[in-house]
Amino acid sequence: MSNMFQEIIAFIISTTGWVLVSSTLPTDYWQVSSNDGDVITTATYWANLWKVCVTDSTGVSSCKDFPSMLALNGIIQACRGLMITAVFLGFFGSIFALVGLKCTKIGGTDKNKARITCFAGVDFILSGLCSLSACSIYAHRITSEFFDPTFIDKKYELGAALFIGWAGSILCILGGSMLCFSIGDSVTKRYMLQKTLNPRPTADCSNSSRTQHFDKNIYV
Length: 220
Known about the structure:
This is Claudin. Claudins function as major constituents of the tight junction complexes that regulate the permeability of epithelia. The structure is a single chain. This protein has one domain: Butyryl-CoA Dehydrogenase, subunit A, domain 3, CATH 1.20.140. Helix content is 65%, strand content 10%. The chain has five helices and five strands. It has a five-stranded antiparallel beta sheet with strand order 4-3-2-1-5. Helix 1 runs antiparallel to helix 4, helix 2 (74-100) runs antiparallel to helix 3 and helix 3 runs antiparallel to helix 4 (160-197). Mean pLDDT is 82; it is low at 208-220.
């Protein structure tokens, strides 16, 4: 029963992390223009993986989509690929985890359900690692440009979307690990139960049987 509750909690944590990762992909404010050293701010520049926008002092935003995928910066292309991969891995992980849970009636035998649950946990871990890598790569570019004294273009700071992506990645990795460890606990308990039901003969019993057999041979 405890393993079932652990699987349910792990499923909730993993699915929540996947939802956060999925919402990070189209979310605005991956990077926001820095106001460091500015006395008067007339406009705020921000961007995500798909467009760059500017918001004036009246709150009106004007956005421009990236015109060409091949002309994009390699970092943005890598972050796009990693985030899309993370979303798909989390989607399939949610389906497999739902099938492999002990509280569901689908998935076949307990052994098959354990394998499916373990595979779902690995999917969630990979999803979290992909999202974590994408957000970290994007953040590294922002921080390296911000602290570079030779960089003369407009500098940016970390946006809210990166923190949402980091939180979702940690939840995916945590939930996937819990799913894998829940299978390990169930396998250990099953092994201990089989060992209890089918105990091996002790050394004394084997020696006594050999002694009785030897005595019979003597009388013969």
